[in-house]
Amino acid sequence: MTDASTQGVRIRSATPADHDGVTAIYNHYVGTSNVTFDTRPFSSVERAPWFSQFRTAGPHRLFVAVRDATVLGWASSTRLRPKPAYDRSVETTVYLDPGATGGGLGRSLYDRLLDVLAAAGVHRAYAVIALPNPASVAFHERYGYRRVGLFHEVGYKFERYWDVAWYERPF
After folding, report:
1. Is the Cα torsion angle 147, 150, 156, 159 positive or negative in sign?
2. pLDDT at 126
3. Which residues are within 8 A (CB) of 143 and not within 5 positions of it... i.e. 6 or more apart?
4. Which letter does DSSP use for residue 6 in this model?
5. H-assigned helices in 65-157
6. By the 8 A CB rule, do 70 and 18 touch?
7. Is 139 exposed, middle or buried (0-12, 13-18, 19+ CB in 10 A)?
8. Considering just the CA atoms, what is the radius of gyration of the chain in Å?
9. Distance between CA atoms of 139 and 106, rounded to whole angstroms?
10. Residue 122 neighbours by CB distance under 10 Å
């Protein structure tokens, strides 16, 4: 991390102290964007089951980018599907505080996440991208993700239907 916007930033595993910051960033996108199909904001307490899926080792991880005590962004890997045969595949995602975009934090978070996933023996990572989202498509393609599927008008938010593309990355 050499970009000026990443100076003083630590990338580390999330702790319970980060949950409010992670939730606040996510809620921004719930209310303003099609990048998540959640339609109402959450409290950190309501997100507790989501937070409980992450570990400090293995393939299901939550990393935060923190400057001082402020969460600037996060990246996670979650189970792709609940059946055991899917356990070597994960879904990845990254979210940044709107004031922290464009300076390399997303790359720093994904660099860390993907390194950990490779070490954990993950076979495939998947990204689910609501379209249009050329920035997210370009970001994921730089990391070797390739489009493998398209669901037409699968989500309804903001009084319209949205397509969703699935991207896959081998390890």
Report:
1. positive
2. 98
3. 110, 114, 169
4. G
5. 105-119, 134-142
6. no
7. middle
8. 15
9. 9
10. 22
Asked whether the beta carbons of 79 and 91 are under 8 A apart, the reply is: yes
Residue 163 to residue 168: CA distance in whole angstroms: 17
Kindly report the backbone phi and psi dihedral angles of residue 56, in degrees, each rounded to the nearest multiple of 5, phi listed first: -95, 0
Residues of the chain with pLDDT under 70: 1-5
Conformation bin of residue 126: beta by default, left when phi > 0, alpha when psi is -120 to 50: beta
CB atoms under 10 Å from CB of 142, counted, come to 10
Task: Enumerate the β-bridge partners of residue 33.
Answer: none
Q: Which of 29, 14, 44 is nearest to 157 (CA)?
A: 29
Quote the pTM value. Answer: 0.94
User: Cβ contacts of residue 61 below 8 Å, gap of 6+?
Assistant: 13, 54, 55, 76, 77, 113, 116, 117
Please name the residue ranges forming H helices in 33-133.
48-51, 105-119
| Residue 140 burial (CB count, 10 A) | 24
Tokens 């992450």 map to which residue? Answer: 54
pLDDT digits (tens, 9 = 90+) for 93-125: 999 999 999 999 999 999 999 999 999 999 999
Q: What does 21-64 look like in DSSP terms, one character per residue?
A: HHHHHHHHHHHH-SSS---S---TTTTHHHHTT--SSSS--EEE
